[in-house]
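Q: What residues go here?
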């Protein structure tokens, strides 16, 4: 009986190693993507917190003028960009929504931050409730 590996056994071993290597590279790439999105989500939530702090310090009667309902960037000039110190995420947009309406009392204010990564749109949101009697 001959000892050692035949050429076929060697080819099978190489194919198995290549398949395992490709799988590991794919897993590594996916983990890098998840890490990047996680870091971007942290930045988006930080930006939303900055807007939320400004909302909390704004008098109730000035909320509609200072934070227009559903207007990206807060209108012209880009007031939200100035509040958060500029946009650092790709395609970042900040909007504030008033629920149920911009004149309701009390009303929920929802800060939405959206951005793009690898042709996908991601979103992060924070909300608070404001009332004139609590201002």
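A:
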């Amino acid at each position: 009986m001959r000892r050692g590996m035949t050429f076929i056994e060697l080819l099978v071993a190489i194919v198995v190693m290549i398949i395992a290597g490709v799988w590991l590279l794919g897993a590594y790439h996916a983990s890098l993507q998840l890490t990047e999105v996680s870091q971007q989500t942290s930045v988006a939530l930080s930006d939303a917190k900055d807007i939320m702090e400004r909302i909390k310090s704004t008098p109730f009667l000035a909320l509609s003028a200072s934070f227009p309902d559903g207007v990206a960037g807060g209108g012209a000039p880009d007031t939200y960009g100035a509040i958060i110190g500029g946009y650092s995420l790709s395609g970042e947009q900040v909007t504030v929504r008033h629920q149920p309406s911009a004149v309701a009392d009390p009303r929920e204010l929802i800060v939405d931050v959206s951005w793009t990564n690898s042709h996908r749109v991601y979103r992060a949101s924070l909300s608070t409730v404001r009332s004139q009697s609590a201002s």
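A: Context that may help when evaluating the design: The chain has three helices and three strands. The longest helix spans residues 7-57.
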